[in-house]
Amino acid sequence: MVVKKRRCGMPRLWTMQEAKSKMGRIVRNAFEEGPQILTRNGRIQAVVLSIDDYRKLRHKQSPLSSLHTRMMRFERDHDDHEDGLTKND
Question: Residue 86 needs a FRET pair 20 to 30 A away by CA distance; which of 2, 20, 30, 68 works?
Answer without folding.
Answer: 68
